[in-house]
Amino acid sequence: MANEQPAWANAGPETPATPRTPRTLRKFRSHQVLTTSSALIAQTQSSQPSKARAGDAGQNAASLGSSARGPTHRRVRSNSDAAAREATLATPAPTQRRPARKTGSGIGVKRSLLENMVRDGPQNGNTHAALQELKYLTLSTRVEADGDGMSPYRVYLWLILLNVPAMPTDDYLALIHRGGSPAYTKIRNDTFRTLATDPLFKRRVTEASLIRLLNAVAWKLHDSKVKNRSRPTSSRRREMELLVNTPPSISEEPEMPGSTSRHSVADTAIYVQGMNVLCAPFLYAARSEVEAFALFHYFVTKECPGYIRGAMDGVHRGLRLVDRCLEIVEPKLAAHLFSKGMQAELYAFPSVLTLCACTPPLPEVLHLWDFLFAYGPHLNIVCIVAQLIRIRDTLLESANLNKILRSLPPLDAKEIIALTVLLVRKIPDDVYSEMIAHAK
What we know:
Largest sheet: none
Radius of gyration: 34 Å
Distance between the termini: 88 Å
Helix content: 55-70%
């Protein structure tokens, strides 16, 4: 047994005999093992529930067996800890409980009203009233999320607010299996740059998933264009006959097919630069690619088709509205920017096209999108104006406006939303109507 002792047990005579030396510990071994352990086992068995006795007795028996085998290289407990050890063994082990389920924000086990509405649906079947309450709760309580912006129910809230129909997974897989779309090369040239400096996005979303989703959307838009071109010519002839036979009024001209006031699917591009950034938050927030695809395809085809046309006329109309709204709500700042030649066309194009997704941080973008999907993506115009007003003093005093406006400060969704709600009251009805229709 001497060969099993650790090297530091053979210390010379100059080593003082302290309670921590192995020599003293060997003296306490017989007392600690042969007498104390038996009494502690009996005391533990009498004080603990019957279910816990077997485990504790087996644990103490294991310690007896290991002690009987002789010294090991593990440090032995000193005698000064014997009382504490006795008290510990005599105390019944607490009942282990399953950790409480936490919400996305880690507040506790209780669900918020917003989460309950998303999970349980409308009460009494009143869908309209439930939808209005859902929008209000989105504005007033915010979606619970963790530090990375992740929420277990946000994607379902978006699906409800945008009224996106269910999509079979096989439909998405069929688009994937078709391979590269006609826009595949353009997509590959953009995807690697998507939110390249955002570590949260890079950690959760791969470039491969972004390519798959954009390529599937491109195929879907391509099929719609082909279907639109193959319409029977008789329908076009009937449209022309109606235009010819209906005399125009004095105040309006006849609307010819292909004019900018009437857009069809044939005018829509299957991919434009910037769609990759607009797609990124959908992929980040969704729990699957199919959900992200359903949301993104519906959004670009129903909510903002004007943003993805070849000429991107919807984006340009939105930029002009940024200037008009700024001139209405903050005329001094607008006059200062215009005097320096800083129209929105020069700095706000990414913010309009991507609904401010180009401005970090991404968790704040998601909170801002909760608000935009609840009350209308057209309010993004006012949100951009709100960002300008928040740095009003800096813009009025700065000599380099271009540098500031091309790199806006980090988003603060709560402050921007609160300011947007105040500013939107100052927007005249005719301008607000243009905001609603500008992306169509």
